[in-house]
Amino acid sequence: MRVDRQLVVRVFVCIAIMVSLLLAQAEVFVDFGMTPTTHIGVAILVIAATLWVTEAVPLFLTGFVILALSTTWLLPELQAAGGSQTTAVFLSPFFSDIILLFLGGFVLSAALHSHRLDERLAKAVLRLAGDSLTKLLLAIMLVTAFLSMWLSNTATTAMVLSLVMPIVHSLPSGDRRRKAIVLAVPFAANIGGIGTPIGTPPNAIALTYLARIGEAPTFGGWMLLAIPVVVVLLALAFFVLWLVYVRRQQSEFAIDLASEPSPMTWRAWLAVATAFVTALGWLTGAVHGLSSGTIALIPVLVLFTTGVLRTPDFRGLPWDVLFVMGGGLCLGRVIETSGTADWLVAGLPTEQLGIIGLAVAVGVLGCAMSSVMSNTATANLLLPVIAGLGLAYGDAKLVMVGVAVSCSVAMVLPISTPPNAIAFSSSEIKSVDLMKPGLLVTVSGVIVTYTLGLWWWSTLAA
């Protein structure tokens, strides 16, 4: 008899959730220093972690589960204990400044992609590679990383792969250079997303918690922190691909990107101008004083008002990502208001580890978790706990930025990131093809993060 694996997972998850609910309601861990609200907070944390790790339900649905449990179970207990919290405490994360920031980024991405401006840039860079595989790999990684700083790394991977697949197919079957070209795209997309706050959700989640303790860098400040790390990681990833798949292979072959781009329309020019103004607004936040979320309203208002984007484009935005982020931020409120953060912190050996030891331990844990589950979910689970540590000024930034970067450098398996999954779906690579260079890049990424990265961030903070 064939067993439905998904059904087994869901049954297991249901049992785990029921056990968590019963244990929390019975307050069986009161001897461990847990209050009634802490019991509930830990139960919600366990439920969210179980759902995110197993993916028994869509990731975005877990966000709504957290919201439902926090407003119907935790909130009444908080109010009974004399708290002044209202439903707004748990609802507001779903439309916070960070959510607006990502919404603006998604709208810009949709506009640039719908008018094929990203494709125009990619083709222009790839043409510069000439007939050299080494130059082609470098061009692919540079253009993919740059686009992933501003656009969805998933959409960037899909677009760049579609451009390079004809080149891949022009090579003989079994040629190792085919694997190098395909793998260059997801590796660069994963790394490039580290460069800006809108490049990948873990960055934005880290900014949210840093803002609460008054240590959040500006948009340009984040780029100053991250770009040097991105450059070094790209160089390492390029070297790994060259070492594993390109070395001793013929370097020359023809690149055919002869198709002419369509003429630029006024809508395309308006999309470019809007992207420029928005990016400038993000980079000059310290001058005008407007938040990044407020600036992110510019592309939403301009592009839909002028017809550059239309209602179907709005419906097609990746709303699931926003709700996953909202759920994670809501979970942070649960951990904070329920006293769960204080309870967890009391059990961590922070004094014994020291700040560097703590940063490395949490970063390695985040990287390991992100290898087998969503990096957004991993950041949602780890960063609220770190925020509750009460670290000294400057130390919190080191740890949180390190966790955000560590979540993004995990690229060992096809399921580790959406760009990996897209590359794997091309049928050009197998799991083992991804695992060997992916493991080298991941380990190198963690080492760079906690050597060069910590040194650079400490230097900027000095």
Description:
- Helix content is 74%, strand content 0%.
- The longest helix is centred in the last third of the chain and has 31 residues, at 431-461.
- The protein has helices spanning 5-26, 36-54, 59-80, 88-91, 97-114, 117-127, 133-150, 153-169, 176-192, 201-212, 219-246, 266-283, 285-288, 292-295, 297-305, 311-315, 319-337, 340-346, 350-372, 375-387, 395-408, 418-424, 431-461.
- The N and C termini lie far apart (64 Å).
- The chain is mostly helical and 462 residues long.
Largest sheet: none
What proportion of the residues is helical, as a percent range? over 70%
| Mean pLDDT across all amino acids | 80
Number of strands: 0
Number of helices: 23
Rg value:
23 Å
Q: Which regions contain 5 or more consecutive residues with pLDDT less than 50? A: none
What's the helix-strand series?
HHHHHHHHHHHHHHHHHHHHHHH
- Share in β-strands: under 5%
Distance from first to last alpha carbon: 64 Å
Shape summary: globular
Task: Report the structural category.
Answer: mainly alpha
SSE layout:
Blueprint: H1 5-26, H2 36-54, H3 59-80, H4 88-91, H5 97-114, H6 117-127, H7 133-150, H8 153-169, H9 176-192, H10 201-212, H11 219-246, H12 266-283, H13 285-288, H14 292-295, H15 297-305, H16 311-315, H17 319-337, H18 340-346, H19 350-372, H20 375-387, H21 395-408, H22 418-424, H23 431-461
Helix pairs in contact: 1-2, 2-3, 2-17, 3-17, 5-10, 5-15, 6-7, 6-8, 7-8, 7-9, 7-11, 8-9, 8-22, 9-11, 9-22, 10-20, 10-21, 11-23, 12-15, 17-20, 18-20, 19-20, 19-21, 20-21, 21-23
